[in-house]
Amino acid sequence: MTNELTPKFNPTEVEAGRYEKWLEADVFKPSGNPDAEPYSIVIPPPNVTGKLHLGHAWDTTLQDIIIRQKRMQGFDTLWLPGMDHAGIATQAKVAARLAEDGILPQDLGREKFLDKVWEWKDEYATTIKEQWGKMGISVDYSRERFTLDEGLSQAVRKVFVQLYNKGWIYRGEKLINWDPKAMTALSDIEVIHKEIDGAFYHITYQIEGSDEFVEIATTRPETFLGDTAVIVNEKDERYKHLVGKNVILPIINRVIPILTDDHADMEKGTGVVKITPAHDPNDFEVAMRHDLPMINMMNNDGTINENGGKYEGLDRFEARKQIVADLKELGQLVDIKPVRHEVGHSERTGVVVEPRLSTQWFVKMDELAKNAIANQTTEDAVEFYPPRFNDTFMQWMENVHDWVISRQLWWGHQIPAWYNEAGEMYVGEEAPEGEGWTQDEDVLDTWFSSALWPFSTMGWPDENSADFKRYFPTSTLVTGYDIIFFWVSRMIFQSLEFTGKSPFHNVLIHGLIRDEEGRKMSKSLGNGIDPMDVIEKYGADALRWFLSNGSAPGQDVRFSYDKMDAAWNFINKIWNVSRYILMNAEDVSADAVSSALTKVANKTAGNVTDRWILTRLNDTARRVTEQMDKFEFGVAGHILYNFIWDEFANWYLELTKEVMFGEDEAEKDITRAVLLHVLDQVLRLLHPIMPFFTEEIFEKLPNTSGSIVVAEYPKVRPEFNDDKASEGVAMLIELITAVRNIRAEVNTPLSKAVPMLIKSEHADFLNAVSPYISRFTNPSELTIAKDLAVPEQAMSAVITGAELYLPLAGLINIEEEIARLEKELAKWQKELDLVNKKLGNERFVANAKAEVVQKEKDKLADYQEKFDTVKARIAELKEN
Length: 880
Hints:
- About 45% of the residues lie in helices and about 15% in strands.
- The protein is of the alpha/beta class.
- Among the domains are: about 185-355, Isoleucyl-tRNA Synthetase, domain 2 (Alpha-Beta Complex), CATH 3.90.740; about 555-705, Isoleucyl-tRNA Synthetase, Domain 1 (Orthogonal Bundle), CATH 1.10.730; about 725-810, no CATH class; about 815-880.
- The strands form 9 sheets. Strands 7, 8, 9, 10, 11, 12 and 13 form a 7-stranded mixed beta sheet that branches.
- The radius of gyration is 36 Å and the shape is elongated.
- It starts with 10 loop residues before the first helix and ends with a helix.
- This is Valine--tRNA ligase.
- One of its GO terms (cellular component) is cytosol.
C-alpha cells in the first residue's frame, strides 16, 4: 500500500529532514500577495550565549502557532528571525573560555578579543538555528538579523544622536549599580534582589575632642571607609548637643561632621546614620542636599582602592572581615546581630551588586515615559493579553528612573562619542573629521539596541523600506512576563519616539516554566530541562502540544513527563486513526469526496452519524478559531482534543464500522469520503500546533498536493450544520454510555445479551438507528416505543429525551437500585440549583447574550425532566 503509516508513531523518523524540505520549498516566506492582509512577528531574539532553554522554546512555539495559522488563513505573513549580541553575558562566556587557556581579554586587546567573540557568535548562532529547526519554527531566514548588523548599528547610532541632540541622553556622575565581576554598570532592572543571611554591625564613632561616642548600625561595615558625614534628625533630643560637632572615623581617623537631615529616623536603630554618598543611593541624595564630598573607596573589580588606607587591594568581603576584627580589637564593635535581608545581585553574573558613584551615559526617561503612558489611552494602544499586564507596564512607566545605558565592555555598540585632548566632546553618527579624536571606550546596554528591534529589523531608518512600509507595526509579540520592563516597555517608548507608532498591536504574555514541584528552574537546583532532550525522546510535536496547552496566558506552567507521555499518546492515537482511514479510503478521489459531501449536506445520501460528525467539525473549527484569535491556546487545544479523541476517534470511527462491515457499497463510499474529509480538516486544525506529523500524514492523503504549511485553514461550512442530527447522535451516544454503565454496575459483560426497553418521544429516530444500538449494547430483545409498560425489576437510566430499562431479574437488588437512583436524583437537584441560581441572577439575565441565557433555560428544562423521571422511578420501585 503506497500510503501506509508505520504501526506506531515514531517522532524521530517523522521529523527527520522535514524542516529542510520546508526551507527548500520556501513555504515560510511572505506570500507577496498585495491583496492579502499583512501579519508580522519579529522573534524575541535569543542571545548568543548558549543553547535555547524551555522559556525560549515556549516563546517560539506560541509565535509559530500564530504565524502558521495566519499563513493558512491567507494572510501575507512575515516572521522575521534574529539574535541578540547580549553584551555582558556573551563577553563573560568568551572571557571564561579564554581563561581555561590562561588568557585574559587584556592580553589580546580589544580588536583581537572581539574576533574571538565573533567566532563564538558564529558557533552558537549555528547551534540556535539547528535547535529552531528541531522546534519547527517557520521563520523567513532570508530576512534574518543580528543586533550588531551594520543596518541595526546605523539605527542605534541615529537614535543615540537624536536623543542626545534633544537633551534626552546625557553624560554625568551618578550613583549606579556596579557589577564587580563583569566590571560594568547595570540598570536597575538588571539587578535581582535576593534574600540572604547577613548581619547588622553596631559600631561606635568617637566625638572629636570628647570621650563621648555615637553608635551606628550597618550591614556593610567596609563602606565606612567612604563616610563623609553622620546625620541625626533635628527633632531628636538625644543628639541636639552634638549637631555641628565632628566624629572621628575609627582606624582611618578621618574627621567628618554631624548634620541634621530628615533621612535619619528617630524610631529606627540608634537614630544616628552614617552617610556614604558614593556607595548608597539614599546617602547620595543626602550628600546632594548638604554638598558633601563623595569618596569612592572601591576599584572596578570590587577591591578596596587607595582611599581605603591599609585595606587597599583587599576584596570587599575580605576587607569586611578584617575591618570587623580591627574594630573589635579597638573596642568599637558593640554587637553583631544576624539579619535576613534583600541584597541586589547581578542578573547576568550572579554576584552581589555594589552601589557606586560613577560617570556614565544616561537616558532621561520623563518625556519618553510620558509619551508611552499617553499612548495607552489612544487607538494605537498596545493590547496586553492578559489585560492585567497593561497595569504592570503602566506602573513601571509611571515610576521609571533615568536609564543608565553605558557598559564597561568591548562587545556591543560602541558609544558614538569622541573626545580630544582639549577636553572637547563630539557626538555623531560618524567619527569627527581631523586628528586627535578618541572614541568613548564604553558600549551601549544591549537593551538599547533591542529596544529598536521591531523597526530596525524592517529597514528603518529608511522609512521607504518595503518591509517597513508593509509589515510595521508588527502584529503580535509573544514573551514572558519577566522581561516586560527589560524589553517590552523599551520597544514601546522608542518606537513611539522614532516612528510615531506602537511597535506591535498585541503583546501575549506567558509565564515561567517550573519543575513538577513548582520551583523555578535553575542550575543551583539542578532541575533544568533541556528542550532538545525532550524532543529527542518525545518529538517536537509533543513538546509543542505541552507548551501550548500547559496554561492560560500569563500563568506559569509546571513541566511534567507525565504530560509529555500524554502528548505522545494523543499523537499516536491520531496516527492510528489515520492508518485505519488510509487503509480503507486510499483510492477515494477528490471528486468522489466533493460529491459525497454535497449529498450528505443535501441529505440525499449518508446517514445521521455522517451529518453529526460534519456538524461537530463545524462547531470545532469555529470554537478553535475563536480561541486562537484570543490567544487562548490551551482552550483551543482542549476543544481539539475532545473532538479528535472522543467524538471523532472513539465514537464516529466506531459508528462507521456498522457501515464499513455492511453490504451497502454506496453507503461505504459516502462514509469513506466523510472520514477522509474530517481527517484532512483535523490535520489542518492541528498543524499550527503540531506541524511535523500533520505534514507527514497530510501528504499521504489521496487528494492532497503541496505542503500543509500553505493549505487553507478550516472554515465553518454552514451547509454541513444539522442540529437534528447533532441532537440525535448525542442521544444515541448518551444511551449507549448509559447501558455500558449499567452493565458495569451489575457486572454483566457486553458479550452477554440482555433485554432492553427504551421509552422515548423520539422512538422513530431511535428505531432508525437501532442497528447502532444493537451493535454497541448487545440486547437480546430491543423494544423502542413512545409508551410501554415499565418492568418492575429493572435497572434504569434517564437520558436526554429517553428512559432506558434493562430487566435484569436476579441480578439486581431493589434497595441498592433505589439507593443508586437517589444519588442520581441528588445529582440532578444540584444541577437544578446551579441553573436556577444563575437564572435568578438579574445581572446575568440582563447582561448575558440571549443565546447564553436560552442555553441555561434549555438546561433547566432538561434537568427538570430527568429529575422528575428519576423521582417517579424511585416511587415505583418503593411501591413494588
